[in-house]
Specification:
369 residues; 6-stranded parallel sheet; Shikm_DH/Glu-tRNA_Rdtase; Rossmann fold; NAD(P)-bd_dom_sf; alpha/beta; 38% helix; single chain; Shikimate dehydrogenase
């Protein structure tokens, strides 16, 4: 039996009410301030996970009652102490490896110092997140009839760890890439590195996310912005958008206002084992978790008890390796999902037809003009 632990935290203020119902009646600032003084809590117990190899797994979910704003706006030394307490709890429970969820893997040096202070290894899960985001995006593009060499591909948050790795993993399959982030100097360095390794690739840079997606056939959103940065009117008919970010980069109204675009949840993974129980309501059906948590589970099952993905950069060979290990154990993408709801082939075909109709209307209007 292998054992792991995973740190999670509320992504929105409303998430407090899932664990502490009384908080829905209190002011947000009061709740956030009060919970800054609460120690990590045991949020769930994962049981019944069984690899295709026969290896079994259990784990513990450790909750930090801190919103993204608190984590990002507090001194990192203070956040690190919270993470260290959670890590010590994981060690006491018998975990062999610790995964960092959501904004706990963005804060500070992305797990490096925490790993130095613990007796068990740490991973952010970003390698498997990258692998499965690209896998799902390419599969969806094929379903939507998008020809990759002709497609305009845009990556939001391209200079972050997942964004950068996503660019390098996508690059061999595409010819046109637009990279988007806040700082032009960092974008220029990334564009240079991509051009050096992939001469066939045309790379553009942009700092305005909304205008950068207006002609994009494929969008991968991995920005660390604490809220939605793309609205319905920003998108091209027939576009495929994979939203890996948590909180989401894509507004929830997009799917209602734009039935001609395909928005996907990035990195929702089904774990192996008929009796697998995640021990927590993630908002997914049973046996499904985010890819970052799945990476921690895969490493534990593989006896790869090491600091696999930490720090600012993700190594492409590790993205490929964790993808292979996931398949070995029976982890796989949970089909196509958007906003926690499964979508089937018939729904995707309907989106594709609506997009074709919309593009035809635009061409007709342009001819008349």
């Amino acid at each position: 039996m292998r054992r792991f632990a995973f740190i999670l935290h509320p992504l929105r203020f409303d998430d407090f009410a899932r664990k502490y119902p009384f908080t829905r009646y209190l002011p947000q600032r009061l709740v956030e301030s009060a919970f800054k003084h609460v120690n990590p809590v045991l949020a769930g117990h994962v049981t019944g996970v069984r690899s295709l190899t026969g290896e079994e797994l259990e784990g513990w979910l450790i909750g930090l009652p801190l919103t993204p704003e608190i984590i990002l706006n507090s001194p990192y030394d203070w956040v690190l102490k919270k993470l260290e307490r959670a890590g010590k709890m994981a060690e006491d429970l018998g975990a062999e490896i610790l995964g960092l969820g959501a904004f706990t893997k963005i804060a500070g040096d992305r797990g490096v110092t925490l790993a130095e202070r613990l007796q068990i290894p740490v991973t952010t899960g970003n390698s498997y997140t990258t692998a499965t985001a690209v896998e799902g995006t390419l599969a969806a593009a094929e379903r939507m009839g998008i020809t990759l060499p002709d497609a305009q591909v845009t990556v939001l948050g391209a200079t972050g760890s997942i964004g950068r790795a996503t660019c390098f993993v996508l690059a061999p399959s595409i010819r046109r890439l637009r990279i988007v982030a806040r700082h032009q100097e960092t974008l220029d360095r990334l564009a240079y590195d991509l051009a050096q390794q992939f001469p066939q690739l045309s790379v553009e840079t942009a700092t305005n996310a909304r205008t950068a997606v207006h002609d994009a056939d494929i969008v991968v959103a991995v920005s660390s912005a604490p809220g939605a940065i793309i609205e319905p009117e920003d998108l091209k008919p027939g576009a495929v958008i994979t939203d890996v970010a948590r909180p989401r980069n894509i507004s929830s109204v997009v799917t209602k206002a734009r039935p001609d675009v395909l928005v996907l949840d990035g990195g929702v993974i089904e774990v192996p084992g008929d009796q697998a129980d995640m021990g927590f309501n993630f908002g997914f059906p049973p046996k499904m978790v985010e890819a970052c948590m799945a990476e921690t589970m895969i490493l534990a099952l593989s006896s790869r008890l090491e600091n696999f993905t930490i720090g600012a950069e993700i190594e492409v060979p590790k993205v490929e390796e964790i993808h292979r290990l996931g398949k070995t154990h029976g982890f796989h993408l949970a089909g196509f999902r958007r906003f926690e709801r499964a979508i089937d082939a018939s729904e995707i075909e309907l989106i594709r037809k609506r997009a074709q109709l919309g593009e035809g209307q635009q061409e007709s209007a342009a001819d008349k003009g």
